[in-house]
Amino acid sequence: MSSQTTDNAPEQRMHPRAVLKSSVSVFDDTSKEYLGLLVDCSDQGIMLSTYDAIAPGTSLTLSMVDIPPNINGRRTGTCSAEVVWCDKITPSLYGTGCRIAERDDMLNTMLKSYQQL
User: Rounded to two decimals, what is the model's pTM?
Assistant: First the structure.
């Protein structure tokens, strides 16, 4: 059973989620393999849309790349995170919820900017 909410289950997150209005690509920082897109974020967690299931308990080191509006160039931030849940959301995509353990200053700036949109 995942920790996602259902229609009749109360919201259990401690921090509100910001839904992104731009694309943020997510890569495995070690292998540089493309994992998917950032769907939403909060101060403590992120949800990714991935092509492959990632088992809960998996530790990841992630690089996130965006091209924000009104900024010349792209930003890249990194974090370490643990997968908390993973559910199939379409026949070819998985929703993967992660708890952020550590993040660099750039990712902190990026996540704050998404929450202000």
Answer: 0.79
